[in-house]
Amino acid sequence: MDWKIFFTSFVTIFLAELGDKTQLATLCFAAKSPRPMSVFIGSGLALLLSAALAVVLGSFLGKAIPVNIISKLAGGVFIVMGVLLIIGKL
Fold first, then answer.
1. DSSP string spanning 62-82?
2. Which of 9, 12, 41 is nearest to 26 (CA)?
3. Fewer CB within 10 Å of terminal CB in the chain, N or C?
4. pTM for the whole structure
5. Is 29 inside a domain boundary?
6. Could you tell me if residue 75 is inside a domain?
7. Domain span at residue 44?
8. With contact defined as beta carbons under 8 Å apart, do 30 and 39 qualify?
9. Is 70 a member of any domain?
10. How many domains does the structure of the chain reveal?
């Protein structure tokens, strides 16, 4: 295990996820639920599966497409999604 990559990934994702829509949705589910542990397990498994999918896709795309192009495409997708959210189409 490369501990530098591990800790860099952990800190980056942890800080990025604080206060995002997923965390706020989980907070709302837990506030309404009589079984917060079920919310914890369900949301944890969903995030784990989401991260696994990202790692698999990232590994594949990283071999097929240069990383700088992937970064630019991801940035473009975020911009488009932001504009769609602002104009109410998403």
1. HHHS-HHHHHHHHHHHHHHHH
2. 41
3. N
4. 0.70
5. yes
6. no
7. 3-65
8. yes
9. no
10. 1
Q: Which residue has the tokens 């829509």?
A: 21
> What are the tens digits of pLDDT across the range 15-27?
988 888 889 999 9
- For residue 88, being part of any structural domain is answered with no
- For the beta carbon of residue 84, count every other beta carbon within 10 angstroms: 11
Nearest CA to 45 out of 37, 35, 57 is that of 37
Tokens read off for 51: 């991260």
Tokens of 48: 């784990």
* Radius of gyration, CA atoms only, the chain: 16
Spatial CB neighbours of 62, under 8 Å, sequence gap ≥ 6:
70
pLDDT 10s digit of each residue in the chain, 90 long?
999 999 999 999 999 888 888 899 999 999 999 999 999 999 999 999 999 999 999 999 999 999 999 999 999 999 999 999 899 886
Q: Nearest CA to 28 among 50, 43, 14?
A: 43
